Amino acid sequence: MSVTEKIDRAPAPGPGAAPGPADGHGARDAVLRVFRGDAKGGREVEYKVPIEPGMVVLDAIHWIQGHGAPDLAVRWNCKAAKCGSCSAEVNGKPALMCKSRMDHFAPGEPISVRPMKTFPVIKDLVTDVSWNYEVNKRIPPFKAKPGANWRWQQSDVDRVQEFRKCIECFLCQDVCHVLRQHELKHQFAGPRFFVRIAGLEMHPMDGEDRTGFLKDHAGIGLCNITKCCTEVCPENITITDNAIIPLKERVVDRFYDPLLWVWSKLTGR
Amino acid sequence: MSAIPVVDHDVLVIGAGGAGLRAAIEAAAQGCSVGLITKSLLGKAHTVMAEGGVAAALAHVDPQDGWETHFKDTMKGGSFLNHWRMAQLHAQEAPERVVELERWGALFDRTPDGRILQRAFGGHTWKRLAHVGDRTGLEMIRTLQDQGVIQGLDVHMEVTVTRLFKDGGRIAGAFAYRRVTGEFVVFRAKAVVIATGGVGKAYRITSNSWEYTGDGQALAYDAGAELIDMEFVQFHPTGMVWPPGVMGLLVTEGVRGEGGILRNAKGERFMWKYLPEARRHEYAEDEAEARRWVEAAVEGRQTKDRRPPELSTRDNVARAIYTEVREGRGSPHGGAFLDISYLPAERVKRKLPSMYHQFLELADVDITKQPMEVGPTTHYIMGGVRVEPDTAAATVPGLFAAGEAAAGLHGANRLGGNSLSDLLVFGRRAGAAAAAYARGLTATPQIAAAEIEAEARDLLAPLERGSGESPYEVHRALQDVMDRHVGIFRVHEDLEKGLGELAALARRAAAVRAEGDRVYNPGWHLARDLRNLIVVAESITRGALLRKESRGAHSRLDFTAMDPALGKVNFCARKADSGMTVEPTPLPEMPAELKALFVEPVKEKVG
Question: Rounded to two decimals, what is the model's pTM?
């Protein structure tokens, strides 16, 4: 059920930029269907927004806030895909609103903007992501190797940088079916935290062993490698192949390797 | 009114960017109960946006470097309006703070022999910025976040502080609302550290997020603290100018540090024209020398060649670009061209990965093939809460400030990279001093019930008004006033006009109406933020009017030279019964042994 509240107005006065080359977008309006509501329920409300060149969905949301819906709730900070605050589902796909270009959608087709489904809605586009911060607290932190000399090579930095560039948008958590459909938040840490653990485990100076945590608390075995997380990552982290699979291998080597099992029985280690 | 819950902490830290996190970690390490408040989710603060690096004289790449040179560069960059003691402490302690981060798990790019790599930046004599690609801020904030978890900090996410309370002149706590529910909460605390960052949202073209509304400066001012140097607003020379939605978004100085060349529409490399005479000898003589410097930097070897003119200080580069545009030599969208495409594409992608993606995805520009279009954007405020250098204590007992919200380190202009080191050095000092102060108090200060009720009523007023303007409307008008009258070039008549318009805006802001209810209502939140924005806008404008000279980031078209007499004072804003007063206060005199470091006679640049 969709209730329509169209807001028509003349385009806002230009923000002071010199007019750019005409690219055919200047005159048309876009239609956004934005979820308005809270934990008890809600509806999609339709807004008409004048399009500017290079506009992203977050710009459109801001325009709506400034012109008729001042209480529309949305999280955002940097507007440059560096902070990971403006996560939502745009036309059903988990995405950062600041990176979702309006000119990538079919002209004239309404664009649906909804909150992330995996987390409880607080209001409109804002969800309660506090569970993620609780999971993070349980991960064994960085612990320097005894006798570390604190010298390492650029290749060590480059290898692990992929995991450390995560901006915590939680879109991978949103799309992961273990969390989204099966709601196993109590058993499963989710892709974001496998990426974080990979960043710690592959840190050249780290001496902590997190395989027990991965197996018993983070539930890494529940991941069946559908790679949905990798597809939605705005930082293009190859989450499944580069973080999750190598961590799964570490868990297997540690707990399920038959030779190691015999060895540990014999030596008691 | 239902009872408002009270939360007790020894030390309350407002703001969870680098400075706030570092302060909270230090206070907790000293055994205090610490509350850390952030308007956003943890880890989203502006520090995360810092790209280029953290300045520290580790001397890994250029062994000639040392704290003395970093100190001198910082003082020169700030046109000697800096507090000498802050500049000294900062230069001396930055290296150990960076190494400490590494011990906590931060990963920086490496030299061939495996130590922390350092890159060149504007105004720094030697290659000094520890960095990891162009994501230094993210690495720092995650490392500090993790350390905060280890210390067991109580983090209050999505909470906004609206007032500080005092008990007999001492800080007693703060009033706040939870953004998610709209519920009020009172924090009772022996000491408060302000680490709220800057004021960029007073301007329309800015690299700052919605959070930068001058909260800390205004809270401190209302509590009786002093604000100094507020006229010094840094316009970063390179913000995106196109497309409109990303206008103002930061383009890291790292682009120039890696060899980026600025050209105007006629293809002229114009920065040579704008080098201050006193420092011209520090820069390459011609394109060939600049090119050799870049090649040496790429290959990671020492060179006698001097750095390219694009690595002049930010105030100077911003004025240069602005002037080129004003004189009709701007790029199609009103900026200058910044070109790094002459370097190998792989190197650009490795050293500037987020710039590469930012331009490709938001502006359809491949920076490995095409130049960027850039122009000045409001980025940072050098001014803020006046603090005692060693302890970061404000003039109100129990109040401390660190990071961008505090003043003194950067003087009239901040060097790139000195902000990340600032927040580590003075965040730690503020946390330690706040903990020591809190431990020294025998009784917990009390908060008067009437003050709590008055603040609650005040906050609810915009929601209860039957009619009134939208806060967004007033915010746009405020940004327009600041962009037009208190921008990069200033003149008496404009500033006077701006001041008049700000007075009118203050009345409009006091009468705005917030639609909707208290649950996650950004319009209501903005209604309160406007009050802070107007306090900082007024202090910027009043300082700019009184500073009848051009110095650092403050450029007056009607007073284009430096005035040596004004080089001896800070303009200081205080709250009086009649409103804001701004008066000159003497700048502390540098001791002889530090003066002796400036071997060449200290020349003040003109024009």
Answer: 0.93
